[in-house]
Write a structure and sequence with these properties.
The protein has 178 residues and is of the alpha+beta class. It has helices at residues 46-61, 142-155, and strands at residues 66-68, 78-81, 88-99, 102-106, 115-120, 123-129, 135-141, 166-170. Strand 2 (78-81) and strand 3 form a beta hairpin. The structure holds zinc ion.
Length: 178
């Protein structure tokens, strides 16, 4: 399941064309990248924009609604998301505020076939950089807040199946948060 809307364009991406990249899963020989703390991006440049374009193509191909850079083997602090309202990319995201709580089912493109309930903040405010290097503040509630928290976990080497995240496993197949 995924958003079936046509691929939206992201502001600041310019004419960069994305290339599909392999999504690293826990079973792969390079899975260690999923457990590292990713490093900040110092300068937002064409390489960053190419990475974002590649991540968007890869995420859509896998029918995901979020993807973090380490999931394509690049350990930098960057994620993309699209819950059906248009694509979002945040460089060096940092959660500034959390509000409320929600429990809901998650999956992960890097952990195929596993789903489970995870408690997350219901609303969040995240600070970071856009694709031109400008400071941005992104707010999200409900599903968007869930996806963003899931992706920021990836940047810290944390997976939704970890103790302190997974409340219980579920069989039901859901949209994979990325
Ligand atoms: Zn994930």
């Amino acid at each position: 399941m995924s958003s079936r809307r046509p691929a939206g364009r992201i502001k600041g991406l310019g004419g960069v064309r994305g290339r599909p990249r392999r999504i690293v899963t826990l079973r792969d020989s390079d899975a260690a990248v999923l457990r590292r703390r990713s490093r900040p991006i110092r300068t937002v440049d064409r390489t960053t924009r190419q990475l974002v374009a590649d991540m968007l193509v890869s995420m859509r191909r896998a029918q995901g609604i979020g993807l973090a850079a380490p999931q394509i083997g690049v350990p930098v602090r960057l994620f993309v998301a699209d819950i059906g309202r248009g694509p979002l990319a945040v460089v060096n995201p940092r959660v500034r505020r959390r509000r409320g709580s929600q429990v809901g089912i998650e999956g992960c493109l890097s952990i195929p076939g596993v789903y489970g309930d995870v408690r997350r903040a219901r609303a969040i405010e995240v600070e970071g950089r856009d694709l031109r290097g400008r400071r941005i503040v992104v707010t999200g509630e409900d599903l968007l807040a869930r996806v963003v928290q899931h992706e920021i976990d990836h940047l810290n080497g944390v997976l939704f199946i970890d103790p302190g995240r997974l409340l219980r496993r579920r069989r039901r197949r859901v949209r994979r948060a990325g």
